[in-house]
Amino acid sequence: MDFAQMAGGGGGAPPSEPSDDGKMMDLGVKIASQECYAKNVDSRFPMTNLFIGDTRLGCKSDADEQLILHVSFQEFVKLRSIKFTEFNNGTDPEINPSKIHIFLNREVGFEDWEDVDPTQTVHLTAEDLKETADPTPLKYVKFQRVRNITLFIEDNAGGDISALGALKFIGRPVETVNMDDFKAKKG
What we know:
- The protein is mainly beta.
- It has one domain (about 5-10, about 25-175): Jelly Rolls.
- Helix content is about 5%, strand content about 35%.
- It contains one helix and ten strands.
- Strands 1, 2, 4, 5, 6, 7, 8 and 10 form an eight-stranded antiparallel beta sheet that branches.
- The N and C termini lie far apart (about 50 Å).
- The model is unreliable at about 10-20 (pLDDT under 50).
């Protein structure tokens, strides 16, 4: 099962491609699963769990509280917000991420993340991570042409590891221009 199928709820048939009417949508169907990866992840709680809709499965770090999640999209998208949801309905609040650095259109690792300025850093509270909470807004002007995004979870609420229950990217595909429409007609 790939990310697009999981974003549609894990059912049998993948969700249909939504039309781009300029409205914001869950971009799960636009994730290029073969280009996504996580670093320092517990193999029992892989990144793919974030997109299936069951926060009890989620994604956990392995050795310490730091976790890198790299998500690629099939095409350029505009991101308005990200919905971070707590693991297992908040039964272990100390493992909730509290500080996440967001890097746009670049890959970063544990060895070099401090050498690169993040596009945005978000500080999350337990309330921000509730399933019913609004998505975390992004500096929309900086997220107009996103091909991939790297989330570096630097810190959490005091636990030995970090965990997320679900992850959603809210935005829309970037409208592209078909250059054939501009070719002069011969007549």
